[in-house]
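ERR on first pass: missing label on line 2. Operator R.T. fixed the label and resubmitted. Corrected input:
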Amino acid sequence: MDLSLSEEYQALQAEIRAFIATQGHKSPKVGGGRKRPDQKTLDWQKTLLEHGYVGRTIPVEYGGAGKTPDVMEAAVIASEFTAANIYAGLTNQGVSMLVPTLLEVGTEEQKRAYVGPTIRGDIIWCQGYSEPGNGSDLANAQTKAELKDGFWVVNGQKIWTSSAHYADMMFLLCRTEPHRPKHEGLSYLLLSMNSPGIDRRPLKTMTGRSEFNEVFFTDVKVPESQIVVGRGKGWYVANVTLKHERSMIGNADKVTTRLEQLIKMLSATEVDGVPLIRQAEFRDRLLRLQGEVIAWKAHNLRLLTEAAQGIDSGVKRMIVKYGGTMLGFRLSSLAVDALGAVGLPFESAGEDAEDDDATTWNIDYMYDVGLMIGGGSNNIQKNIIGERGLDLPREPKVQTAATIGRG
Amino acid sequence: MDLSLSEEYQALQAEIRAFIATQGHKSPKVGGGRKRPDQKTLDWQKTLLEHGYVGRTIPVEYGGAGKTPDVMEAAVIASEFTAANIYAGLTNQGVSMLVPTLLEVGTEEQKRAYVGPTIRGDIIWCQGYSEPGNGSDLANAQTKAELKDGFWVVNGQKIWTSSAHYADMMFLLCRTEPHRPKHEGLSYLLLSMNSPGIDRRPLKTMTGRSEFNEVFFTDVKVPESQIVVGRGKGWYVANVTLKHERSMIGNADKVTTRLEQLIKMLSATEVDGVPLIRQAEFRDRLLRLQGEVIAWKAHNLRLLTEAAQGIDSGVKRMIVKYGGTMLGFRLSSLAVDALGAVGLPFESAGEDAEDDDATTWNIDYMYDVGLMIGGGSNNIQKNIIGERGLDLPREPKVQTAATIGRG
Amino acid sequence: MEFGLSLEQRQFDDSLREFLKDRLPMERLRALAEPGGGYDADLWNGLAELGLHGLIVPERFGGAGLGVLDAAVAAEGLGYAAAPVPFTGTTVMAPLAFMNSATEAQQDEYLPMVAAGEARIAVGFAGLAGQTGAASVTLDGTRLSGTVNGVMDAGAATHFLIYLRDGTAALVEADAPGLSTSLHRSLDRTRPLVDVAFNSSPAVVLAAANDKVAAARKVLDAGRVILAADMLGAAQTMLDRAVAFAKERVQFGRVIGSFQGVKYMLADCVTTLEPCRGMVWYAAHAQDAMPDEARLTACHAKAHVADVAREVARMTTETHGGMGFTDLLGLHYWFKRIGFNRQVLGGPERCREEAAELQGWRLDR
Amino acid sequence: MEFGLSLEQRQFDDSLREFLKDRLPMERLRALAEPGGGYDADLWNGLAELGLHGLIVPERFGGAGLGVLDAAVAAEGLGYAAAPVPFTGTTVMAPLAFMNSATEAQQDEYLPMVAAGEARIAVGFAGLAGQTGAASVTLDGTRLSGTVNGVMDAGAATHFLIYLRDGTAALVEADAPGLSTSLHRSLDRTRPLVDVAFNSSPAVVLAAANDKVAAARKVLDAGRVILAADMLGAAQTMLDRAVAFAKERVQFGRVIGSFQGVKYMLADCVTTLEPCRGMVWYAAHAQDAMPDEARLTACHAKAHVADVAREVARMTTETHGGMGFTDLLGLHYWFKRIGFNRQVLGGPERCREEAAELQGWRLDR
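pass 2 clean. output:
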């Protein structure tokens, strides 16, 4: 057990602190926003890339800093940005899911074409997974792609597609081998969202923004080479991607930041002249959450250490998304309660502007419910924890009309 | 809406208050005990019977007071005894389950033979339902009874049989029609626990007492007439009984009493000279529980009113056992926390004596967990609430080796 | 003893629900929510047909002379429909304020206007309610100055009735000199909040109560019960819709309501929510008929129903999956209505604190 | 940076678990629990072979010179096995009391006895720990009088070490004149509580610390971390057993672990319990190496792990159905061990109160 930083990491820490001290004022605001990055964010991302604070371990030839993967470096970077409440770089689906997927299983050409522009924020990706009627049951995707004259011709519909209304590209899970069993009939394609035949219809969410879309495909042509890994390998590739999504969503830095914000808010907010932190129930809830956050941070340190040691953390990793989103919701719940009636006025400043604090917290509060649903719902997570983590038996297959013939 | 009592009920209330004032000192202690009634309890029960405070609506010819059923009278009686913390009469399985079952579906002979002695506490019953391997799946009972020469010959094993170690009689669910479908092959017999061939083995529980037993049957002979309703009707009769059990377990009087006890305990218990009720977390938990108890009491008033009006309360009734046991556990949890280290010394005074307060609370705390398991576990309750109460579809039947041939 | 709604109450409830179902289909709700003003003249005037405006105004002033319980029944129906109307403030708190704090002559003047729907009086508290937000007003004779932020049910107010800390109430016409308002669309687009500032505005002072603070609290307590009833209705909508959705939606080849994961969430919802109905009735009836229990049950009802409703809102949204998170089904209107009700007139934390004080359970430090 | 157990710690953990598995099968545990004295000479002496007694005693006094983290690892193992040994008091708190509060000469005299297992010192607090129960002692020179109720790990104590409110500690031999004890078998039959009374009993006074209260609190904090570790181990046993049971038990024609109702309860258990392990390690390491965080993390670890463990205990017992409620599988030993650990040295409510005070979050009233 050694929580001290070796000299090398201390040097990195000092370097980042100096960077934040001189450059931090250029950072966009942390939290709340799930929008297309504005120019301020793009500029900041470019600065972070230049310093290797994002894209750090991505090879130089693909636009990164080419450093050897080192989870402790990553932890130092994350923790410094969190502590200073400074924007730590884009965490959209392209950066957090597609890039690691391509780096893991993409072709040389695919990596060269997409990794750099994606981490710079020039290409924004969306994820074409869910379909009407199969929200949680991804392997049941029915959107078809047929190979004709060197092109995949895509027909069908996706839904719950985050960011599709402003995305440049999509990674798409579609059925290319209709006669094979359910999980073996899928492929994973990369396509331009500007292709003819794509119709995007933004779905407004409860936050008042259009974080999701319906996307309709009518004879959309995608060059044959835009497949990742190969025909019928879509389920495999999708699982590579999902693995990265799950670790993206659970994150001790987020709950730590929120706890710090809460302590400040409860100290500053008064009712009848008494700060909320001096009122019993608010203080009790804060204390309980502080206990939870300490546990969560320590758990994260364990995961980091195991990752650095190349150990598969198993169930310890699988609990992160479910536990983290629930804890996040408890934190944002306390925040909106502390804001009270003052927090109720709600005007999102739109796609290109920063919202006020109360609106940001309310959006986070609602978005947390969205996180319980997206990226594998809580119930799906509990199935995974139970079945893969604790090795409990799977829900028995029920033979119904709907499943017959699907395998 | 009228929460005032009409003159008739005010008179009853006054009568009970006078009774408690003059006789209440003879009451045994409330709570904690799941033992064979001692002489003090039997004497008290006899007094209550004479006054019609128990067995009130049971016809005179079966040993009751023969009053017209009136849920408001029942509520007045219960609430006066609760408020005064006076023992309100036996609530064992014979009184609360078998007696109403026989009154509903028994023969004249059965009613005459069993109702009176049971409500007097002279016959103690146990319930022969669960078997090893079918704890929650009652309809799967395998204990057999074959009719030979005017006797049912019983062979098999029951488990989780409360009170069997001191019971006089059992109501038994057993398989008499092995070739019929699962639910249609059962019968419901009444038998003496002193019959040759019965072997009772007390199962000690976590409370340190033997609240349950294993009961083994080897060629136990039961007269043919000891069947309730008839051959193959056991599942029907068992459900009549279960209905009474479920309403027995959820009870707003219990949570009201506990809340009152908690307020006293938190006011009287000090740490470093400060009463717990003046300490933030204890007070907050008490307040939350007070809110829950108020809701629960009001809900109970609704059920009482609907019962008086002959309305089937449906899902409102179905939630009572699950919600009530969970609330009971939260209350007893606060009690053991308030007792703290002082509450840890634990010596149950045995089957025939009263325990000290701390031991009683600890037993109640553990017994509350038992209540989540017994009488249809929490999960079974949630199935019932979801399927019968909200009309959600049942868990699909899975075709496995174990179910094939059972129907 | 009879604990339940009377035949008249059930008939009134049925007709209100029928009316709202008819007048407030989802597309209409969306249209009304857009401006976020919390008031629609058509809907409001339509409710007059049901006698809603004068519900608790005494008969001698042209009302129906009913009680807080009847108002709570109506509030549950309005919450069930997410109706954008200033019910709590205008129809319940304002007449109660007159009945508790005003002289007979003042009652004579204003209560008939309330009953007729001519006066829409928004009620604000400068301090007593434990609501976050600036509130500081002074009364100089009959001139009111200062600000009260976050007044509810004031989107189309004709008057503002402001309770001062000492329990005096001051009524100011919305177009009075020195009065200015700023309307904020809120998280719940069916109800806005209004910041109101007074600068030596002429006021009618209501100070007829013997115990002015106690009189003010009666108005506050009733408001809290009505908000609890509204939350109950909103949570019930969400549960009913989630149950219906769970019976239809198919995933993994099965209707999702057949999965224990979904079934148990919904069972938890009904197990916690259903007792809230009895609680709201009891607390409302206490306002009408059981003064000893009125404050305690009002505080607890607001707090407990808010906590239950938050969980029901979360779980029923989860049950809907992506369909719950988007705007498609409009489920979020109720999610947000629950969020709004939770915070105004004091959140659960404050309400329980008051419940503790009532019982003398003060903390040591 | 490395946040995890070292190879040595893992090996020690393995050998301890191996030892306990071997020496403490269920029938042995039952036999030891019956008298409820919390001490078995064979088991205690056997643990000496593993170097347990001198675990945190500095090497110059014959110990292994390890830290609270190592002790926490051992405590988790002991909790996992429900071992009836006076570990927390005798092996952790007592030596820490000497290291923090005693003179060099006093350390010289007693620490080797602790390391050798000759002295089994029970540690009690008269006031600082927030434990319920009477505790009032006075020290007149080197004579101790008064009573301390509910001292843990004192079933076979050779000495009592009592911390006074001012942070002075007084060590009294168990057979000293004027000392009398009354042993109570507790809910957790693997650990009793002892009421001890002193009547002018001769004491060795430990008062060498600069800040005596701070020194006493270090002992208390370490004790709380060890109890948290013990609870973690106990809850982990219950979870492991529930998972195994759910894989075997068949109901309604299916292994019960295949029902989402059961699966989700167990998923909830592991999701809340697993992070407690990192928390316990962190808090233990803080006692050894991060003085700024030592108190806060100790308070939170005791409180949070207690709350998680209570829920795990309930849900894993439920998973076992009737088999969990009876004595048959002995599951209740762990249920009760969790209940015991929760209450001694201050419950969660008190621990969080101290955490608040540490951070200056005092209540208004």
